[in-house]
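Appendix B, record 7
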Amino acid sequence: MDQKKLIYEMTALERKVELLASQHHRLREELRQLKDENSRLRSTVEEKEEQLDHFQKTFKLSKIVDNAVAGQTDTTELKHTINEYIRKIDKCIAQISQ
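Structure tokens (predicted):
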């Protein structure tokens, strides 16, 4: 009788070990996926911060130009020239990013 009880307990223990191993494998896979997602999200946040910084600098430059040349007759020409410079800088940044 004692031997049957021991066999039963060993079988139950083996089943629990198998379940734990399965759960461990599943959790490791989930952790890997979450780390990948975290990495992608960090990269996206970094890109968005760079874009925001670029737009803020562009906006500041536009405000400076608006304030500096207010009242001058060649304001439109100056704005056009600055906008061209900004476009060229944007193209350079895009090429560097690639």
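Remarks on this record: The chain has one domain: 2-97. The helical segments are 2-68, 75-97.
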